[in-house]
Amino acid sequence: MSKNKVKPLVTAVFASTLLLSGCGLFGSEEQKKVDPPKQVTVTDTNPTKETTGKSESEKVEGTVKTELYLINKDGLVVPQTLTLPKTSSVAKQALEYLVANGPVTELLPNDFRAVLPEETQVSVNIKDGVAVVDFSKEFKNYQPEDERKILEAVTWTLTQFDTVKKVKLQMNGHDLTEMPVNGTPISENLSRATGINHDTADVTDITNTKPVTVYYIGGEEGNYYYVPVTKRVNTSEKNNVVAVVNELVKGPNVKSNLASEFMPDVELLEAPKIEDGKVTLNFNESIYGSFEEKIVSEHLLNTLVLSLTEQKGIESVAVTVDGKAELVNDKGVKLSEPVTRPEKVNTGSF
């Protein structure tokens, strides 16, 4: 995708497996917080032994959908939801599936690659919301240009689990304060606030900015997906919801191969209203993909919901146009209820 805007009418030809319905989006998956299965233990005390005393090789029957943050052909870190064997150590397994030439190999989507160096071994210990990850010495065998991508992929893969808010890294049992190849500083407690796929192309003075993460559309026809990008916005913008909407309207960097379905003349007609985790947005009619049919693009809504639910305290999004709430998306589905974030992102191409 070479342009940074996709006209909303184009979405009619998207072969989406992700349908917006009722109070959720992205198909029939349950709309809830991202929690590991209730019956499993996510605390790994070492690479070979569970806190429950069970062997690491002992699997729980069935499968589980897990977000893995992989690198696409443009060098962006992108979530891809893959079906993995259910195990009593879901956090550790997720990282094991980030290792090059490891168990993820046969599952990798086209034009994606794993982020961790080949033969890297991992252990994960989760306590009080902090996941401490210990890598083997093979961890340092990565290319310098992948350094930040590895930090982002590990952090965002682990923080998909509701039990993980922050991440600490070790290698051979020693705390890492910087990455071993290029020396990128590592925050004591990495989190999603650290950002992902940073875009500072239009920033002249970063000291007067703050980060917000928004989702754009990446990939190509028949294989589109949502990509999180951390932008820098002026600190004078006190309302992060407004800042997110403005960045979606502004669109991605023209050199990024990403796209937005927001037209440049989309505007909020009043300040967003936030109550009990729900944000209500009142847009002008430019939010419609078709003025004649007055429909709202499903994929525009998806990027809006994904972006806003990255903000603390926001769990659902309600959209009105000129104060009217009876909207319809381009699949013919009435948007009568607020839309919540899906449990997993990019569960299939569209």
Number of domains: 2
> Beta fraction of the residues?
25-35%
Number of helices: 4
Secondary-structure element series: EEHEEEHEEEEHEEEEHEEE
Structural class: alpha+beta
Cα end-to-end separation: 14 Å
Which segments are poorly predicted (pLDDT under 50) over 5 or more consecutive residues?
A: 7-58
Biggest β-sheet description? 4 strands, mixed
Mean pLDDT across every amino acid position: 85
Rg estimate, integer Å: 20 Å
The portion of residues assigned to helices is 10-25%
Q: Could you characterize what this model shows?
A:
This protein has 2 domains: 8-31 and 196-340, no CATH class; 59-191, no CATH class. Helix content is 12%, strand content 27%. It has helices at 90-96, 147-158, 240-250, 298-308; strands at 59-72, 77-87, 112-113, 122-127, 130-135, 166-171, 174-175, 209-220, 223-234, 273-275, 278-283, 288-290, 295-296, 316-321, 328-329, 339-340. The two termini are 14 Å apart.
Summarize the structure.
With 350 residues, this protein is α+β, with helices and mostly antiparallel strands. It folds into 2 domains: 8-31 and 196-340, no CATH class; 59-191, no CATH class. The chain has helices spanning 90-96, 147-158, 240-250, 298-308, and strands at residues 59-72, 77-87, 112-113, 122-127, 130-135, 166-171, 174-175, 209-220, 223-234, 273-275, 278-283, 288-290, 295-296, 316-321, 328-329, 339-340.
What is the secondary structure topology, with strand pairs?
Elements: E1 59-72, E2 77-87, H1 90-96, E3 112-113, E4 122-127, E5 130-135, H2 147-158, E6 166-171, E7 174-175, E8 209-220, E9 223-234, H3 240-250, E10 273-275, E11 278-283, E12 288-290, E13 295-296, H4 298-308, E14 316-321, E15 328-329, E16 339-340
Parallel strand pairs: 5-6, 11-14, 13-15
Antiparallel strand pairs: 1-2, 1-3, 4-5, 6-7, 8-9, 10-11, 12-13, 14-16
